[in-house]
Structures are given as C-alpha cells and as structure tokens.
Amino acid sequence: MLxxxxxxxxxxxxxxxxxxxxxxxxxxxxxxxxGFATVQGDQYQAKNVVVDLNSLVTGxxxxxxxxxxxxxxxxxxxxxxxxxxxxxxxQGKARIKLRDQIQEVGGTYKVINxxxxxxxxxxxxxxxxxxxxxxYKGIGVEDDVRIEVVIPxxxxxxx
Length: 159
Fold this sequence. Notes:
Order of helices and strands: EEEEEEHEEEEEEE
Low-confidence stretches: 1-8
Strand order of the largest sheet: 4-5-7-8-9-10-13
Number of helices: 1
Distance between the termini: 20 Å
C-alpha cells in the first residue's frame, strides 16, 4: 500500500497537493472515501477503495467547479478507485483507476493511530489519466500531483 503520515489524520480521507505555475499551490480535500486495508504480519493490502470525486473541495468555488466538471468530468467519471495495493516495510505499489484510465503507482505508507489506520503517499501524473492543459487566467496546474490517502486497517481473515 502507499501512504505517508500526518499528525491528526482522519480515516477515509484523500488530499491532493497541487502545484500551480507560475506560482502557488492548493490542497484538494476529498472526504467521501470507502474502503480499508488489511494487515497480515508486515504485509498490507487494499482493494476497491472508492473515492467520490464529487466530494472535492479546494477552498475556492470556481476552482472546485472547473476541477469537477471540466477536468475530472464527474458526471461521466464520478469515482476514482484504488483497484488494488500491496506493500511491506513502508513501500508499496498500487493500481489506480481515474477517468477510465488505469495506472500503476509506487509510494510509501506509514501505520498511524496505534495501528488502526494507514496513511499512503504517492504521486500521479494527470496526463496519464487524460487530464491535460489545466489553466485559469494564466495560472496552470503542474502534471505531477501528490496524493495522501488515510484508511482504516483491519486484520486479514483466512479465505
């Protein structure tokens, strides 16, 4: 699995750290997330973690509208899905589906909240998901976006 820690992490949240060009940045918050990770020994796994893209909030209404409707196309693609992820020793890999495009990503994770949650940290390239040329009033969005995901952890059960 992929994720990094932050002090007051809440389960089932996603943060997207976006860098603007020529200057600035913002954080997109997605709070409608379902799913969990399992742990067995030092192996962590997750499947079908679903993020409701309509829950995106950036702190600026016009940016929210453009992100959701023009670039993410939430009416056509309402969810992003972590299809599967696995990791051990704080390193992991995952397959992510966004806008009907599937990409593999690698990243890091940290166990938090006394082992009750996992926080993953990874980067995506927007262009690999068909999202290009994002610009508003001369300010553009960089292609690389850092993602943090926090989900609960449950003990693995025998199948």
